[in-house]
Write a structure and sequence with these properties.
The complex is a heterodimer of chains A (about 900) and B (about 350). By secondary structure, chain A is of the alpha+beta class. Helices cover about 50% and strands about 10% of the residues of chain A. In chain A, strands 3, 4, 14, 15 and 16 form a five-stranded mixed β-sheet that branches. In chain A, helix 12 (about 380-395) packs across helix 14 and helix 15 packs across helix 24 (about 600-610). Chain B contains one helix and 26 strands. Chain B has a five-stranded mixed β-sheet with strand order 1-19-18-17-16, with no helix packed on it. In chain B, strand 4 (about 50-55) and strand 5 (about 60-65) form a beta hairpin. The relative contact order of chain B is 0.17. The chains are: A alpha+beta (about 900), B mainly beta (about 350). Chains A and B meet through helix 2, helix 3, strand 1, strand 2 and strand 5 of A and strand 2, strand 5 and strand 6 of B.
């Protein structure tokens, strides 16, 4: 029937179409016509749909037929394989089956066979519904009783807290309860906020909807009434429909070009990325607090915080003069009889200047690339360019991986991607200010010259740069025989010219003339470059890939200006020591050039681009370096009465009625001022903050010597914090048999060991899970422990208070709750994820207590013995029930809950029956 | 639920009975006063295709269907604490007791390709895979991506041995794959140590999550690669899970067909299929049974069965191997047997 309709509709449609075509020209399509078109299309779609469903069902059933036949064979095989099986139970079944058949036929087959069965009740089958009277009912076989487990919900073991993932949330979700008594489902959503936030997401257009859309517009033209009725039909707004139509039209064009892109995407190698792109996953997925990838506690994509304090470069005392290998710069230099060898100097002094030099180096490389790029990317003024760069940054971060990055043509994508990363990791900006500055300044030269030589296409453009350079190099190469005119540099440059110009090499002079005549400005700048020997590095740079440069830069940070170490540790297999050395010295020269052209760059570069406040952060950087030095002095003068302690004490006193505050590292690059997020939030700064160690808001750890940090005399202990070997002075961990120690010279207190790091070190007691003497499950101790001994951590999911309120309602219904207030932001929930301590029951006279402790910036719940506990004893703590909510067994015979321990940091939400 | 977009509407079966096949009541028996929650035929061993079992209260009873409507009681087991439990496609002997679930079990199914594997759905929000021969709990399907409430039903994929589908009171249907954990399944067959020492693994994330229903989902079955599931919406829904290869756990649901079942709006009513999945039978709140032809499009209602004395809600039906016999067990503890009238 449907099919007939469909055919009719089809014919009718085509007729209509013809009719419509005629109408279109007059553009008098009535709404009725439109509706009928849409209607018929809809019918067609519906028919197509039922057809496709039918087809799919048929395919599926064909497949299924084979499967069930196979299963049938299997079940037949089982029949034969089990014949001869003497298993008594299956025999019993078979026999009874026969009995039943026999009984029905009036023949008793079961005569005398009874003794053969192991079952105590060999009753034969009982027939029901037949004419044979039924006298005896089958006596049931009692199954051996299995002791029932106390009920629990399947849970996952966690050894450290986890933050709740988005999909675990119960907020905004309806929950249905089955009323055991009434036999009805109750939909439970508490109040206003629960009003379902349904279907906010934009509905996508389906294929069939696209079809209707396209066809209707094709037939009835694009006009408002058409759009309106379409919108009605698809239950969307006319604007949406129109937008969709336009994208549909565009998609057609895009499709063709897509294929080309895909081809180009393939050649992309790891080395083509720069260091930041390569480090992307490290930056975004590696947790610097837990030192693991994909941290479940702090989550990925945390804000990157770079400490303002930089470590001093690694000082390598040995091998001062020994060559590191066959390519060591020492050897090469010796062989060239160069007497201007710079011995590795005091690395500390050098590191800053050299990293600046590297910045310059990078920028020059950038500009070289940019020059190599086709003129179109440069013809725009540098200002707009700059703008587009920053606007690109939002869109482009991922682009770099997919975009083709051949060596000479990529500059636009490459740079955009690069700047995207820069922008994204805005924290890095401070570090890179110099680089950016130089880059821009370079860009200036490039863009200016490009606009001047506006007619030139890319090869010519490139010649402009390469040829003068070549020329001047020829001129100067004899005079600069030392470091500069190395073989590699030469070789590379040739290579570069070859690639870039691709055979079409016009005479040098003409190009040079052209360049010179086109603009004085330009020529002056070029001279600048020439004078400062920049060109050699530029050509040299080409052999240095972005990632290599990045690695070099890091190397300078770590090892100072030690090309041996840098080459060996960071650029192993990529660059030799000699190459690194050359690069490094090249950077120095670059620096000199910058000094020379400083006026110019300040005038033209900075004044135009300080819009971004780049200069401002440059200032910041310098200041922080200054402060660092000061900070070191301060530390020596440091006393107990430092302000940090003051604020801590305050917190302790306040905390009685106020939960602790969640710590989030601040990203201050200088000593924290009023804007510091930690300060505003009321937490101390920790070692994870960006601020220098001299920050007044830092918690300074303890200096305890003999007390083992177990009393309130220890500032850490008093502040409910665990000691941190990174922060405290004397707290350390003994290693192995205790003879060797980490980080502390042995003369300091031989038998001393900090006792306030148990959570950090997971020095916990063995806890056993068993049947509680009170109710449901319980937690028991395996060994004896003394008073105030740490037993273990109470782990769970970290959920927000809002989430906890919602879950609490659910748990209350189920009469079991594993919630713990942790701090002002989070509640711990051990319902589905936790550890065995979650099974410890409530008691008004507990033998344990829980305490929220700050461990390396995180709040964690430790369970401690309140008194001496013997092995095998069940653990209890006081959940701090509100008096009326405690279950009957948890109530004290006398007044309930009158005994309150002072200083207990957590208010118990927990309540459970299990 | 979101409105179905144009072009993806399901094909809905018509409730006019075609009377392709007629059934009549041939037997009726009262097992006890307690509600019967499950009835199921054995499909594993062809010797016992006419054997079925019922579960109600703490009792499991094994019966046999004989010709002429006769039902024979074969065995009966009593347990102290089994409550509301549905048997798998019936192993005819109780091998072992399995301890592990933290709460009562709602359904058990046997892997037709490897009958020693059973999977159980429990109130403790987990699905567990067991090896009956060694008594090992091999896998636990629960955790971060697991069910958020009782699991009511579970089923093995008929051909893909790694795949199971489960559904429950969190309104979702989840498809799980144990492919990556298959070594543990194999290990369980040769395990000689104590079952409790077996390294039971957690499967925390399903490969597919479907929100087809907006209420408890109390029964699901694979129909080839499609899934039949039902909630309290007076219908059985047939849908196809369309998975995205790159991102497990995501995907879309294409609802293909709907089989309306009037007066079926209370939960814990389960349907059943015959061996070849040609037809399915489901009871309703008023004691009526609807027999649907599953694999035709649009769906065809084969028969609507009603009896003047059958008033109690039917919790589950069982179809025999060829669909000629339908059993149903009711809230009032009765078992009804319907036989197809030979077509002449």
């Amino acid at each position: 029937m449907d099919d007939d309709d469909n055919n009719d509709a089809g014919e009718w449609l085509s007729e209509k179409t013809r009719f419509k075509m005629a109408q279109v020209e007059e553009k008098t399509v009535s709404s009725k016509e439109i509706l009928s078109v849409i209607d018929s299309l809809k019918k067609q779609v519906a028919a197509d749909r039922s057809l496709s469903v039918k087809k799919r069902l048929e395919e599926n059933s064909k497949k299924l037929g084979g499967i069930t036949n196979h299963l049938y064979t299997l079940s037949n095989e089982r029949r034969s394989s089990w014949i001869g099986d003497t298993d008594s139970a299956s025999d019993l079944l078979t026999k009874r089956q026969k009995d039943a058949l026999g009984m029905q036929n009036g023949i008793d087959l079961s005569n005398g066979d009874d003794d053969g069965y192991s079952y105590q009740e060999p009753s034969t089958a009982v027939l029901m519904g037949s004419s044979i009277p039924v006298k005896n009912a089958v006596r049931p076989i009692k199954l051996t009783e299995v002791k029932k487990l106390p009920p629990y919900t399947t849970w996952i073991f966690l050894d450290r807290n986890q933050r709740m993932t988005e999909d675990q949330s119960v907020v905004g979700r309806r929950r249905i309860y089955y009323d055991q008594n009434g036999g009805e489902a109750l939909i439970c959503s508490d109040s206003e906020e629960e009003v379902i936030e349904e279907d906010e997401e934009k509905k996508e257009f389906f294929e069939s909807e696209d079809f209707i859309l396209r066809m209707t517009i094709k037939e009835a033209c694009l006009s408002d009434p058409v759009l309106e009725s379409l919108a009605q039909c698809l239950s969307r707004s006319p604007a949406e429909v129109k937008a969709r139509y336009e994208t549909l039209m565009k998609e057609k064009d895009v499709e063709a070009s897509k294929n080309r892109d895909i081809e180009a995407q393939n050649w992309n190698s790891f080395l083509e990325k720069d260091l930041e792109a390569a480090l992307d996953s490290f930056d975004n997925l590696f947790c610097r607090r837990c030192l693991v990838f994909d941290c479940r506690l702090h989550g990925c994509s945390q804000d990157l915080i770079f400490p303002a304090d930089k470590q001093n470069p690694w000082n390598h005392p040995d091998e001062e003069n020994a060559p590191c290998g066959p390519h060591c710069y020492r050897l090469v230099l010796k062989s060239e009889r160069n007497d201007t060898v710079r011995s590795p100097m005091n690395p500390e002094d050098k590191s800053n200047s050299s990293s600046d030099g590297v910045g310059a180096q990078i920028s020059s490389k950038k500009s070289a690339r940019r020059k190599a790029k086709s003129s179109q990317s440069e013809s725009a003024s540098s200002n707009t360019r700059n703008l587009s760069e920053s606007s690109d940054s939002e869109i482009r971060p991922g682009h770099e991986e997919s975009s083709p990055t051949p060596q000479l043509s990529p500059s636009k994508n490459k740079i955009a991607g690069k700047s995207g990363i820069l922008k994204r990791n805005s924290k890095r900006v401070a570090e890179r200010v110099l680089i950016c500055m130089c880059k821009r300044q370079k860009k200036m030269t490039a863009s200016e010259s490009d606009s001047l030589a506006s007619g030139c296409v890319s090869p010519t453009d490139m010649k402009l740069r390469s040829n003068p350079r070549k020329q001047s190099e020829d001129a100067t190469s004899s005079s600069h025989k030392d470091v500069k005119s190395s073989n590699t540099g030469r070789y590379r440059k040739k290579d570069w010219t070859l690639k870039g110009v691709q055979g079409e090499v016009p005479p040098n002079e003409t190009v040079n003339d052209l360049a010179l005549t086109s603009s004085n400005d330009f020529s002056i700048r070029e001279e600048f470059v020439d004078e400062n020997l920049g060109k050699q590095e530029l050509s040299d740079d080409n052999s240095w890939k972005a990632i290599e440069k990045g690695l070099f830069e890091k190397g300078v940070e770590i090892f100072g200006r030690n090309s041996c170490l840098i080459a060996r540790n960071l650029l192993n297999g990529l660059k030799t020591c000699w190459e690194v050395f050359q690069y490094m010295t090249g950077a120095d020269n670059k620096l000199a050039y910058h000094a020379a052209s400083g006026v110019l760059s300040l005038l033209e570069g900075c004044s135009k681009y300080d819009l971004n406040g780049a200069m401002g952060s440059n200032e910041v950087r310098r200041r922080s370096r200054f402060l660092r030095r000061r900070g070191r002095v301060r530390r020596l003068k440091y006393t107990w009465k430092s302000t940090a302690y003051h604020s801590i004490r305050k917190r302790i006193t306040e905390r009685k009625d106020q939960p602790c505050r969640q710590y989030n590292p601040c990203s201050c690059q200088t000593a924290c001022g009023k804007q510091c997020s930690c300060l505003l939030n009321g937490t101390c700064c920790e070692k994870y903050c960006g601020c220098p160690k001299s920050c007044k808001n830092r918690f300074r750890g303890c200096h305890c010597a003999k007390s083992q940090c177990r009393s309130r005399q220890c500032p850490c202990f008093a502040a409910d914090r665990e000691c941190d070997p990174d922060v405290c002075r004397n707290c350390w961990v003994s290693c192995g048999d205790g003879t060797a120690s980490l980080g502390v010279p042995p003369q300091r207190g031989d038998n001393y060991e900090c006792r306030n790091m148990k959570l950090l070190l997971k020095q916990q007691q063995r806890v056993l899970l068993g049947r509680s003497e009170v109710s449901g499950w319980g937690a028991f101790l395996k060994n004896n422990v003394g008073k105030h001994e740490y037993l273990g951590e109470y782990t769970g999911e970290l959920i927000s208070h809002r989430e906890a309120d919602k879950r609490g309602k659910i748990y209350d219904r189920e009469n079991s709750s594993f919630l713990f207030n942790l701090n002002d932001q989070f509640v711990l929930d051990a319902y589905r994820k936790g550890d065995k301590l979650k099974f410890a029951n409530h008691s008004p006279e507990p033998n344990c207590y829980a305490k929220v402790i700050m461990v390396a910036g995180d709040h964690r719940v430790g369970i401690f013995a309140k008194e001496r506990i013997n092995a095998g004893e069940e653990l209890f703590y006081d959940y701090r029930y509100e008096p009326d909510r405690a279950p009957a067994w948890a109530r004290k015979p006398e007044a309930s809950g009158s005994k309150k321990e002072d200083g207990a940091p957590w208010s118990g939400r927990a309540k459970k029956l299990a | 639920m979101a409105k179905t977009p144009i072009g993806l509407e399901p094909v809905v079966g018509s409730l006019t009975s075609t009377k392709k096949r007629e059934y009549r009541v041939t037997n009726r028996l009262q097992e006890g006063k307690r509600p019967l929650y499950a009835v199921i035929f054995n499909f594993i061993d062809s010797r016992y295709f006419n054997v079925f079992a019922t579960v109600g209260g703490n009792r499991v009873t094994v019966y046999q269907c004989l010709e002429g409507g006769v039902i024979a009681v074969l065995q009966s087991y009593v347990d102290e604490d089994i409550r509301r439990m549905s048997l798998s496609t019936l192993n005819e002997k109780i091998h072992k007791s399995f301890v592990g679930h933290g709460d009562s079990i709602n359904e058990i199914r046997t892997q037709p390709l490897k009958p020693s594997l059973i999977v159980s759905a429990s109130k403790d929000e987990s699905v567990r895979l067991w090896n009956v021969h060694t008594g090992i709990c091999i896998l636990i399907f629960a955790g971060a991506g697991g069910h958020r409430n009782e699991v009511l039903s579970v089923d093995f994929h008929p051909s893909d041995i790694y795949r199971i589908a489960s559904c429950g009171m969190d309104n979702t249907v989840k498809i799980w794959s144990m492919k990556e954990f298959w070594t543990y399944v194999e290990k369980s067959f040769t395990w000689t140590d104590l079952p409790s020492k077996f390294p039971t693994k957690y499967v925390q994330f399903p490969v597919f999550l479907a929100s087809v229903h907006s209420n408890y989902v109390d029964c699901n079955r694979w129909l080839g690669d499609f899934i039949l599931s039902k909630s309290v919406d007076n219908e059985i829904v047939l849908w196809e899970p369309k998975m995205k290869e790159q991102s497990p756990g995501e995907g879309t649901v294409d609802i293909l067909q709907k089989y309306p079942v009037p007066e079926c709006d209370i939960w814990f009513i389960k349907f059943s299929c015959d061996f070849h999945y040609n037809s399915a039978a489901i009871g309703n709140r008023e004691g009526k049974i609807f027999v649907w032809e599953l694999q035709s499009s649009p769906p065809v209602l084969i028969a609507r069965l009603s009896h003047a004395q059958s008033k109690s809600p039917i919790r589950q039906t069982a179809m025999s191997f060829d669909g000629s016999t339908i059993l149903c067990c009711c809230e009032d503890g009765t078992i009804w047997r319907w036989d197809a009238v030979p077509a002449n």
